[in-house]
Amino acid sequence: MAGCRTRYCWKFSPMRGSAPWWWAAISRCRPEDVMASSASDPLAAALAEARAAIDRGHYARAVALLEPFCEAHPATRSPGDSLRLLLVTAWMGLGEGERAASCCRALLGSSDPRRRAEARDLLRVLEAPALRRPRDWSLTLPRLDQAPPLEGLATGPRRSSAARANAVPPPPPVGPTRSPRGFVAIVVGLLVVWLLSNLLSGCMRVETELAFAGPGRVRLRHHLEAVAGAPLPFQEALATALVAAEPATLVIANGPATDLTSPVLTLAEAETSLVDTLRLTAAQAGSTLPDPLLELQETNWLLGVRQHLRIRLDLRSLPALPGLRLSLRFTPLARGAIQSASPLEVRPAEGGRALIWPLRPGAINALEIRGWRWNPLGLGALAILAGLVLVVQLQRMRVRLGMGLPELPE
């Protein structure tokens, strides 16, 4: 590798511009800062001596100094993470890639995010496949003791200039310039990882709305919006899968946003549709989620329906991807109907007639709602009955006052 090699590893020698995190990790732990406290702290003395041994290329000495402190200092907190980072450098210098990778995996659980990032970068380097050079990569010079003698070569018949002009030129001494398969595999793998990270961890908002159309009837609406400004392939694939599962779904695409509205469904159909939607979303994201719990109990009192809704979504297997926002929207619903919500609280929407419940990936989300859905027909019948009672009471008061019953004019 071109450039000046670091003092920590002969196998991997990043420069300051290509690996600033490596140089920052080393500069944070200078030997002169540690020597001041080495007299009272044996770990600090061992770290200083191990760094000096690595500077001189004595990697076995550094391993012997650092390994006794691994059990007393775990990798999840300091100074165990700094100790293991030096141990990884020593193992890499000795050519022990498996042990160095094991130390890097232990550093992934560190409480310091910078240590986790450094361990993740080192692990990618250690787990990268080795590239093999083909045999014709470079020119191989023959041994002089096995070469034929030059005597008698000049006495043979000379070729004419025309024959030399028509002769086919020999192939290049280094062979054909073909791309090695290992390099192509690495490039393709990096492109796939980059595309997946853009598709799955890009800024995207997924919102599912439950609109109560009446007693025992629910309408589902899914809103997919890419904050980046252009529809994502994940968004288009999910919309296609939802339409294939429910052909009656209405799809409206408006720039980076896509709305999918289902017809009015019963409670059982709504629960089945919600389960299918969650399965398809998890399948498109490359993970598996357990079935959600959706329980809706309704009691009809003629004047209205008392509803009790319980929702439980287990998203522990879904990683917390940056930029991904999930939420449920309930329309119409009053704030007083919310009994409990965890782990995030329910907030009112902009219009005031709806509530939005944000979901947290990597946790169990639970919600309980109790409320009334008034029946317009029942309320109208009650108003008519109250009017009849009022008319009868007024008529009785008229008779008691001696005015008699109302009569037609003569």
Terminal residue distance: 120 Å
The average pLDDT score comes to: 71
* Uncertain residue segments: 1-14, 30-39, 192-197
Residues in helices, as a percent range: 25-40%
User: Which structural class do you get from the secondary structure elements?
Assistant: alpha+beta
**Rg calculated over all Cα atoms:** 38 Å
Please provide the ordered H/E string of secondary-structure elements.
HHHHHHHHHEEHEEEHEEEEEEEH
Sheet with most strands: 8 strands, mixed
Strand content: 15-25%
What's the shape?
elongated
**Beta strand count:** 12
Helical run tally: 12
Compose a concise summary of this entry.
This protein is an alpha+beta fold and 410 residues long. 39% of the residues lie in helices and 20% in strands.
Secondary structure layout plus pairing:
Layout (H helix, E strand, L loop, with lengths): L19 H8 L3 H5 L6 H14 L3 H8 L13 H15 L2 H11 L5 H14 L34 H6 L14 H20 L3 E11 L2 E10 L6 H13 L4 E5 L2 E5 L3 E2 H19 L7 E8 L3 E11 L9 E8 L6 E5 L4 E2 L6 E5 L4 E11 L1 H25 L10
Parallel strand pairs: 1-8
Antiparallel strand pairs: 1-2, 2-4, 2-5, 3-4, 6-7, 7-12, 8-11, 9-12, 10-11
Helix pairs in contact: 3-4, 3-5, 4-5, 5-6, 6-7, 10-11
Could you please describe the fold and organization of this structure?
With 410 residues, the protein is of the alpha+beta class. Among the domains are: 20-126, Serine Threonine Protein Phosphatase 5, Tetratricopeptide repeat; 204-377, no CATH class. Helix content is 39%, strand content 20%. The chain contains twelve helices and twelve strands. Strands 1, 2, 3, 4, 5, 8, 10 and 11 form an eight-stranded mixed sheet that branches. It has a four-stranded antiparallel sheet with strand order 6-7-12-9. It starts with 19 loop residues before the first helix and ends in a 10-residue tail after the last helix. Residues 1-14, 30-39 and 192-197 have low confidence and may be disordered.
